[in-house]
């Protein structure tokens, strides 16, 4: 199944309506976890071919929202539509790549064994594991056991697994946490090149300085959306110099 | 069902076992050591060993497989790899069958070693054919594996998973006829023992020790054990949820 190879600047979309529709459409999403309402009727859209940053303090519901988008979160109301299908639908399972917040790889297997397995499950091309290892800068570590890698290296194996099969939508839960500035820079360049090739990226982070690298930002607080805008417009409307201050300003004004 | 994904999963589980030689050694050696122990426990009464040896030849591998598979599946859940897999195009039954094939290979080797030891080295005196004893031992290992995969769906920590051994297997062990004829039990217990799969596993073995050839009842018992193993796998797949709270 090599139907999802990266297309050029003018990708041959399956249907005209599909290109016009957003990659993700969330309407009135409510999630209850452990007896508490964690997401309160969220509405949002993520445009195709863009990088959207999901920012907000710890515990505000970023991971929960991402889990709902990939279809592993039980929801209490609302609709989540991904690439024109209900989230988690069988047809989406080789079109969406997902990186969980904690690296999800087999610690007792080597890097290449991990990626070979996930590639087989996805039906991705046999050359894909080598490609994604190079993309995340882990060349030379193929035979290392995942448990014996550093935390940042293990996180990159987890990211590499999500890049297998060239998914149309990448949902990344804090993919750059614990990485040094050089590596973060490299990964953001990778994200940009993937978006340029037509992929849609939804990236959560609580490192606010990563926000300026996104095309669009979703600012969240306590399960509600504070803002949905471009970084520049956000700075302009709040009259602040950085996203941190913009966030604080928004929190103040909604109090 | 998708054979490629099932086999890829089986290969991956076997690779994980290869990276953990101590677990493999324990899986293969522990039942054998226990059987040697049993033999010399009844040193002065070889008849006793001939009677209960085959029954325990089925029970020991079953317990070991149960423990290992329940913990293996639980690790898949706690490591987050299960969540990743469930966003990928793999069927829930494909995943469990992959595990079943990998641990089925282990069960096969385990049963071969344990039967060769008991019959070849320890000189167990059997009325029925050797291959039938081997077949029942394999089926018992598969049943233990399938039950282990099933209960791991209900455990959220490794402590809970380990507790399922006494909770699920020990009652079966008490009621399976190992400690006394099932006919002598209270009627209600007798009924319960009639629906527990381990009773059929032990019945099959005990019939092989006393009758020559393979009785129709033995084949039936074997079929019941196999069907229970498959039912446990299917139930395990049905209880696996793509969406979690
Ligand atoms: N498994 C769970 N069971 C019950 N409640 C949970 C569970 N996981 C998270 N929660 C609750 O849901 C809320 C949102 O959690 P979530 O993981 O989405 O936050 P987050 O924004 O991703 O935080 P962080 O930046 O720390 O990763 C939290 O208040 C948390 O207590
Ligand atoms: Mg999170």
The termini of chain B sit apart by 27 Å
Which ions, cofactors or small ligands are bound in this entry? Answer: adenosine-5'-triphosphate, magnesium ion
Counting copies of identical and different chains, the oligomeric state is heterodimer
Structural class designation of chain B: mainly alpha
Order of helices and strands of chain B: HHHHHHHHHH
Helix content of chain A: 25-40%
Biggest pleated sheet of chain A: 6 strands, mixed
How many distinct beta strands of chain A? 10
- What level of helicity do the residues of chain B show? over 70%
Return the structural class of chain A: alpha/beta
Strand content of chain A: 15-25%
**Separate helix tally of chain B:** 10
Rough outline of chain B:
globular
What's the story with the biggest beta sheet of chain B? Answer: none
Q: Which sequence of SSEs, written as H and E, runs from N to C of chain A?
A: HEEEHEEEHHHEHEEEHH
Tell the overall outline of chain A.
globular
List the topology elements:
The complex is a heterodimer of chains A (255) and B (245).
Chain A: H1 16-20, E1 24-33, E2 36-46, E3 51-55, H2 62-70, E4 77-82, E5 85-86, E6 96-99, H3 111-122, H4 128-135, H5 151-163, E7 169-173, H6 181-196, E8 200-205, E9 216-221, E10 224-229, H7 231-238, H8 243-254
Helix pairs in contact in A: 3-4, 4-5, 7-8
Chain B: H1 3-18, H2 21-41, H3 46-78, H4 81-86, H5 92-121, H6 130-151, H7 158-175, H8 187-195, H9 197-210, H10 216-239
The complex binds adenosine-5'-triphosphate and magnesium ion.
């Amino acid at each position: 199944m090599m139907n999802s190879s990266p297309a050029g600047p003018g990708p041959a979309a399956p249907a005209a309506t599909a290109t016009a529709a957003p990659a993700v459409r969330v309407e009135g999403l409510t999630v209850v976890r452990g007896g508490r309402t964690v997401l309160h009727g969220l509405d949002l859209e993520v445009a195709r071919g863009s990088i959207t940053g999901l920012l907000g303090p710890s515990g505000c519901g970023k991971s929960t929202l991402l889990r709902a988008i990939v279809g592993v979160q039980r929801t209490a109301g609302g609709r989540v539509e991904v690439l024109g299908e209900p989230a988690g639908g069988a047809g989406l399972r080789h079109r969406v790549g997902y990186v969980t917040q904690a690296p999800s790889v087999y610690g007792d297997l080597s890097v290449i064994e991990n990626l070979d397995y996930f590639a087989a499950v996805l039906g991705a091309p046999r050359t894909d594991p080598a490609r994604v290892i190079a993309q995340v800068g882990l060349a030379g570590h193929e035979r290392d056991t995942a448990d014996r890698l550093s935390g940042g290296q293990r996180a990159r194996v987890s990211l590499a697994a999500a890049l297998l099969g060239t998914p149309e939508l990448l949902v990344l839960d804090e993919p750059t946490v614990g990485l040094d500035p050089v590596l973060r820079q490299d990964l953001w360049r990778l994200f940009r090149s993937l978006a340029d090739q037509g992929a849609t990226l939804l990236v959560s982070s609580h490192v606010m300085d990563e926000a300026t690298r996104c095309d669009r930002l979703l600012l969240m607080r306590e399960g509600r959306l504070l803002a949905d805008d471009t970084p520049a417009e956000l700075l302009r409307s709040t009259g602040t110099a950085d996203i941190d201050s913009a966030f604080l300003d928004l929190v103040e004004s909604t109090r | 069902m998708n054979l490629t994904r099932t086999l890829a999963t089986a290969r991956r589980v076997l690779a994980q076992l290869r990276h953990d030689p101590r677990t493999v050694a324990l899986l293969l050696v522990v039942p054998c050591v226990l059987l040697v122990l049993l033999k010399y426990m009844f040193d002065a009464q070889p008849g006793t060993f001939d009677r209960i040896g085959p029954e325990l030849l089925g029970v020991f591998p079953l317990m070991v497989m149960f423990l290992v598979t329940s913990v293996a599946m639980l690790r898949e859940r706690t490591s987050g790899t299960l969540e990743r897999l469930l966003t990928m195009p793999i069927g829930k039954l494909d995943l469990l069958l992959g595990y079943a094939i990998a641990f089925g290979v282990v069960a096969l080797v385990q049963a071969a070693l344990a039967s060769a030891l008991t019959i070849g080295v320890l000189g167990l005196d059997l009325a029925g054919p050797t291959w039938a004893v081997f077949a029942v031992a394999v089926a018992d290992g598969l049943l233990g594996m399938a039950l282990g995969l099933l209960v791991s769906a209900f455990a959220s920590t490794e402590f809970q998973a380990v507790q399922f051994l006494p909770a699920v297997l020990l009652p079966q062990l008490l009621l399976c006829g190992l400690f006394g004829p099932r006919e002598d039990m209270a009627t209600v217990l007798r009924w319960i023992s009639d629906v527990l799969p381990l009773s059929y596993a032990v019945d099959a073995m005990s019939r092989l020790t006393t009758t020559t050839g393979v009785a129709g009842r033995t084949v039936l018992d074997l079929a019941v054990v196999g069907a229970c193993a498959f039912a446990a796998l299917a139930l395990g797949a049905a209880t696996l949820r793509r969406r979690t709270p």
